[in-house]
Amino acid sequence: MITIGITGGVGCGKSKILEYIKENYNCRIITADDVANRLKEPGEACYKPLINLLGEKILDNDGFINKKKMAEKIFSDECLLDKVNSIIHPAVKDYILDIKETENQAGKYDYLFIEAALLIECGYNEYVDQMWYIYTSESVRVQRLKSSRGYSEKKIKDIMDAQLSDEKFRAGSDFCIDNSGTLEDTYMQIKIKMKELESENGRK
């Protein structure tokens, strides 16, 4: 099983690319956000540590952590955000690496794709066979985020400024997909790369 990291800045279009990969290749896809959300549920690894740090006011009436309340609690508090990240990121990595080991032993999939914006920062290069960077021009990303999520220009700028630059994403990756054009162009890039991988590994 080949393990591939998928990373890129906000609005680069990772979700559409992963949908295409899932439909066309024998693979399992893990997104760090999904894992983090699961680990914040009652009884999971991050639940009690986050409540101990942030207090019970971040909980809904049903005892689940409310994403919006949690975000408001740590908004503009960099120190608190760092503490939250120190709880979530290691737990997410451990969970994903456990899945990788399990799937390697099961032998069901040809590929495991791991998606997150922070793969490079969190040191996943050590655990994947290849790191893929999804590049999309800033103007396209801004337009996408305005139309699909209703973000203001200030919010978009703040998020982008907090993420790696294009140069650093490229430096930390083995392969770059340009997703600034049509989806057909993007899919063709993936097809070519996957054929290369299949050839290198003796698959058809």
Summarize the structure.
54% of the residues lie in helices and 13% in strands. It has helices spanning 14-24, 32-39, 47-54, 67-74, 78-106, 138-149, 153-162, 166-171, 183-200, and strands spanning 2-7, 27-31, 111-115, 130-135, 175-178.
Task: Describe the 3D structure.
The chain has 204 residues and is α/β, with parallel strands linked by helices. The chain has two domains: 1-26 and 111-198, Rossmann fold (3-Layer(aba) Sandwich); 34-109, no CATH class. 54% of the residues lie in helices and 13% in strands. The protein contains nine helices and five strands; from the N terminus they run βαβααααββαααβα. The protein has a five-stranded parallel sheet, with helices on both faces. Helix 1 (14-24) crosses helix 9 and helix 2 (32-39) crosses helix 5 (78-106). The chain starts with a strand and ends with a helix.
Q: Determine the CATH superfamily of the largest domain.
A: P-loop containing nucleotide triphosphate hydrolases
Write down the overall mean pLDDT: 93
Placed side by side, the strands forming the largest sheet appear as 2-3-1-4-5
Under the CATH scheme, which class of the largest domain?
Alpha Beta
Shape: globular
Q: How large a portion of the residues is in β-strands, by DSSP E?
A: 5-15%
Cα gyration radius (Å)? 18 Å
Count every beta strand, where a strand is a DSSP E run of 2 or more residues.
5
- What's the CATH architecture of the largest domain? 3-Layer(aba) Sandwich
Predict the CATH topology of the largest domain: Rossmann fold
User: How helical, in percent, are the residues?
Assistant: 40-55%
Count structural domains: 2
